[in-house]
Amino acid sequence: MLNEGDWVLIRYGDRSYLRRLEKGGSLNVRRDTLRFSEVIGKPEGIRIGKFEVFRPALEDLILLGFRRKTQIIYPKDAFYIAFKLGIGRNSRVLEFGTGSGALCAVLSELAGEVHTYEVVEEFHRLAVSNMKRYGLGENVVFHLGDFGEAEVEEALFDCAFVDVRDPLPYLEKLHRVLRDSAPLGFLLPTANQVVELLKELKPLFGGVEVLEILHRHYKTLPERFRPEDTMIGHTAYLVFCRKVTAPDK
Ligand SMILES: C[S@@+](CC[C@H](N)C(=O)[O-])C[C@H]1O[C@@H](n2cnc3c(N)ncnc32)[C@H](O)[C@@H]1O
Predict the structure, then answer these.
(1) Which residue has its alpha carbon closest to ligand 1 atom 13?
(2) Distance, CA 99 to ligand 1 centroid (Å)?
(3) CATH 3.10.330.20 segments of the chain
(4) Nearest residue to 177 via CA among 213, 201, 151
(5) Which residues are recorded as binding S-adenosyl-L-methionine (predicted)?
(6) Which residues line ligand 1 at a C-beta cut-off of 6 Å?
């Protein structure tokens, strides 16, 4: 049932809108109007004229609802990251930097607990407000500060993900705060950043993999089923590895 105050995903052809249902509210697209009073009290997943109204998924909240002041990690990458980090209901996850909170929202939905660090106060506040606005992130501890300077207990985390321009200064600390064998991931936009990271990872982390995820969307008209004309060629490289320790240490 759709209630007043709920966030909804409204589809009109191939357009998508995220709106909050308020009694006097409406959405106008081309010459059509959807009055929210017609929707409130109706079942979820309803078609009214050319409009379809659904309960939004996490992907809709992030892509249509989160305000962004930093580059974000897109859901296509975020869910695979969570899979590679082996995140489950009991995982305690470390993330930095928080940025706009897009990856953090995904980690939070899947993990037991997330600790995220952001050094810029404006971005820290933005991530907190993005999450609170949609009722997300109750299991997230938002730290305002530089991860490099934070006091963190040894072997506290089951996995970690790092999305900062230069991750090299943090490798030893990451090794220290991760439990043995814990998965660790990085997102890096350019190939030369990946090469620099690969040179430094070996002594502390093994099982290294580098990949990127390409998405190709298709037109959904049955009589003209074929790929969309344009696609995003590159978002970022993903680097995954696991904490290793030599037996004599
Ligand atoms: C590209 S953004 C992260 C975006 C985020 N993954 C998302 O999906 O919304 C990188 C962020 O890392 C922050 N940052 C850089 N170095 C940091 C550090 N040492 N500790 C904490 N945050 C840091 C930056 O201020 C910036 O907001």
Answers:
(1) 97
(2) 5
(3) 7-56
(4) 151
(5) 100-103, 118, 163
(6) 70-73, 96-97, 99-103, 117-120, 123, 146-148, 163-164
d(CA 75, CA 84): 14
Domain 7-56 class, CATH top level: alpha beta
Nearest CA to ligand 1 atom 26: 99
pLDDT tens-place string over residues 133-143:
999 999 999 99
Topology classification of domain 63-243: Rossmann fold (3.40.50)
pLDDT tens for each residue of 27-84: 999 999 999 999 999 999 999 999 999 999 999 999 999 999 999 999 999 999 999 9
DSSP per-residue codes, 28-82: EETTEEEEGGGTTTSPSSEEETTEEEEPPPHHHIIIII---SS----HHHHHHHH
How far is Cα 170 from Cα 97, in angstroms, rounded to an integer?
12
Measured distance CA(147)–CA(94) in Å, rounded: 10
DSSP string across 86-109: T--TT-EEEEE--TTSHHHHHHHH
User: How many whole angstroms separate alpha carbon 38 and alpha carbon 13?
Assistant: 19
> Which part of the chain has CATH 3.40.50.150?
63-243
